[in-house]
Amino acid sequence: MLPLLPQTLDPALAADLPSVNIAHELYAGLTRFSGTGVVPDLADSWGVSQNGLVWTFHLRKGIRWSDGRPITAHDFRDSWRRALSPALHSGYARAEMQNIRGARRYRATGRGGIGVQALDDRTLRVTLQHPVPWLDQQVAYPVFFPVRRSAFSGPFRLESRSPAGLTLARNDSYWNAAAVNPRRVVLGTSMRGVDAVLPRGVAAPGFPWVQTTAARTGPALDTLSVELLWFVTRGTQLADAGKRRYLAWLMTDLDLGSGLVSLIPKSIPGASIVNSHRQVDIPTTTQPLRLTLAYTTEDAQAVRIVAALRRARAQLERFNIELSPKAVPTLRGLVALAGPPARPGIDLVLLGWSSEFFDAYNILDLFPCASALNVARWCDRSYDRLMHRAVRTLDDRKRWLIERRLVEKLHEEVPATPLAWPVDHFSLRRGVHGFSWSPIGIYELSGLTRS
Questions:
Q1: How much is the pLDDT for 35?
Q2: Measuring CA to CA, how many Å separate 154 from each of 19, 60, 305, 376?
Q3: Percentage of the chain with pLDDT > 70?
Q4: Which long-range contacts (CB under 8 A, 24 or more apart) does 7-13 make?
């Protein structure tokens, strides 16, 4: 059962949770998400050249649409141009396709070439504006799927659609149809005990993270998410880095019910290398701090953290800290309050982040000077220069070592401190919740703008 029917079956327009999930079942991309990255889907191999600027994807032999017509590289090229077209207003094209050469201009004007070529029926060449080590993960998003009217490329095809629900049937033309179960799925709506995901056992192979029910009925799943306590560094008492370090140190000494937490979730590859616990100088005392903490009651993890902080009130006061929580009912309302810039009187913000791909860069990308999501409004040009290097470093270990230096800068300056690795359940509206262990960020799913 689904709490809401998908708003669209067009993968280039899918943004609400039901639409995203149904798109992954009706359509396929070059790759498909797996537990620690991506696996081949309609492409069976790919390579990178010219210092990371050119990716070449090789399609499988014999792949076909549900109506039997061959799927070709030209289908991908034409679908990507369509997704980028100004008339379509695709939110995910804005968020995910802008690194393709010429994409920004084409999306704004509908004119000019873009770096996508069909060299032949089975070879797709993608030229980027600058290197992106995780393009193979980005192309697993629905906006990159090929589209044809009344034909489907994924594990299922649409059998029927009505105001009451959807019926999906196994797509026997899908290259891996033998691994798809069940043969037929009837989806209705219910508001009781469901997330906006397909039922357990329905997901196509290589797509395990849509199964969120385990987080409710069994052990919590690892997440790609981190709950951050943001320090507003402009126009508040926390403009002083020493005070921020003092408060961050104190938070690690409180029992917030989360155990030891690092900035980069342990489920992200390379986290053990990237995370750094190098000692920094902590003031032994500081002047009294009277701080207002903003959070949303939609975020269950934040609610638990605030409850723990209330219980620790006496301990905080012994360290000259007085916290006044300010609750807002919605995530959108919290973002309006937190900015950037934060509204006057807001010193701290509890706001998590769910990484959209399997690299620490996506979390570290919150903190550059120009980031639209840098709640702290902290700015260090040397940090930005390291980020410029990291995104252009294709070798994983070398990039992780650069990211470690970035984490050490964040430990020293403390624009934010991690408090928890949450199970990524956020109520977007009645009956609709976020993913657990998902590469898709809560900002995109809420229709909010990311940097």
A1: 62
A2: 14, 14, 41, 42
A3: 84
A4: 9/158, 9/161, 10/147, 11/142, 11/143, 11/145, 11/147, 12/79, 12/82, 12/83, 12/88, 12/90, 12/92, 12/93, 12/142, 12/143, 12/145, 12/147, 13/88, 13/90, 13/91
What pLDDT band is residue 197 in, cutting at 50, 70 and 90? Answer: very low
Burial group, residue 84, by CB count within 10 angstroms (0-12, 13-18, 19+): buried
Which of 27, 37, 11, 10 lies closest to 63, judged by CA? 27
pLDDT of 285 strictly over 70? yes
Q: Check whether 47 has a pLDDT greater than 90.
A: yes
Read out DSSP for 260-317? S--SS-TTSTTHHHH---------S----EEEEEEEETTBHHHHHHHHHHHHTHHHHH
- CA-based diameter of the chain, in Å? 72
Judged by DSSP in three states, 143 sits in helix
Classify 167 in phi/psi space as left (phi over 0), alpha (psi -120 to 50) or beta.
Answer: beta
- Tell me the fold of 225-445: Dipeptide-binding Protein; domain 3 (3.10.105)
Decide if 40 contacts 56 (C-beta within 8 A): no
What is the distance between the alpha carbons of residues 137 and 99, in angstroms, rounded to a whole number? Answer: 13
Residues in the chain: 451
* 0.85 exceeded by pTM: no
DSSP tag of 395 = S
Q: What is the pLDDT of residues 386-410, one digit of tens each?
A: 999 999 999 999 999 999 999 999 9
pLDDT at 438 > cutoff 80 = no
Q: pLDDT: is 97 or 259 the higher one? A: 97
Cβ–Cβ under 8 Å, residues 28 and 144: no
200: its two tokens: 């357990």
DSSP H or E run through 251:
helix 241-252
As beta bridge partners, residue 165 has 162
Asked if 377 and 341 touch (Cβ cutoff 8 Å), the reply is: yes
The CATH class that applies to domain 1-211 reads alpha beta
Number of C-alpha atoms within 13 angstroms, CB side, residue 360? Answer: 28
pLDDT value for 282: 86
- The pLDDT tens digits for 70-115 are 999 999 999 999 999 999 988 888 878 999 999 999 999 999 999 9
Query: Domain ranges in the chain?
Result: 1-211, 225-445
Tell the residue number behind the tokens 């991690």, with chain if given: 418
Cα–Cα distance for residue pair 362/314, rounded to 1 Å: 37
Asked if the model's pLDDT at residue 214 lies above 90, the reply is no
Q: How far apart are CA 64 and CA 177, in angstroms?
A: 12
**β-bridge partners, 290:** 322
List phi, psi (to 5°) of 430: -55, 120
